[in-house]
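Entry type: protein chain
Record version: 2
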Amino acid sequence: FAKVSYILMMAHLLGKTADGMRKLPVTLLSFLVTLLPMMLILKEPDLGTSLVFLAVWVGLVFWYGVPGLLLVGAGSAALSALFSFYSETVADSPWPWAIYLLVLLGGLYLSRLGVVAAVFLLITNITTGIGIPFLWDKLKGYQQERILTFFDPTRDAFGTGYQAIQSKVAIGTGGLFGTHYLQGTQKGLAFLPERHTDFIFSVLGEELGFFGAIFLLMLFMVILWWGLHHATVARQPFARFVAIGVVSYFLFHMVTNVAITTGLLPVTGLPLPMISYGGSNLLTSSILIGLLMNVSARSFND
């Protein structure tokens, strides 16, 4: 329920200064506020849930009007972290990260950015890449194993890689039209763990097939479009930021959950809103939908 409180608090903070000129101090303050719930939840440890706050913050500050350079810098830093990790832990060679930095240098040169902006992006990427080994040592053993298994699920096919493999088997078994309702073997024979919570999309992909899964994603897209529409027509800044916060929440949950079940991201515990089993998740999602309906009821064009 901290997610609901966080969205309302950020909407209030950013909404008060939405039309002001000094946005950078407010953006930095909002990031410091975001770090508090992130660090507490990460301490549990729960990496997936902690990243929800970061994703919502990115959506909010983008709508707030943060310079694109900062967001590009954050995105490139994430890529630098990925290549640095791959070089250090998977490939055991510095070349992947070195090649990425060379490509980054070429991109900075072709983009014709100012010297200060280019140096800022380069230092950010190098610092992030160097800091990855220190962050890696701070992760729990099971978290490290999940990430390593993402790069090579067969390294522990009957352990940490089992769930990712069975998830892809379930989705692949569904084909275009699925095996039909309650006829999925991965669920019925209990081959797929956590099939009622974090891996419910795998069950839907198996029983409803490609078209059923696409239909479900289209329903989510309706919610996202609805939220974005009312964020643009709402008269009050607070209402606009509430709508964007809700949209960012559902977008991150949807994309991350589907990416995990299809093997595009490491396995982490993040449910599919309104679909996965869980009382608190359903109640939180329902409250956020209610907030979006409230914004919708008060959105006027005149």
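Comment: The chain has a mean pLDDT of 83.
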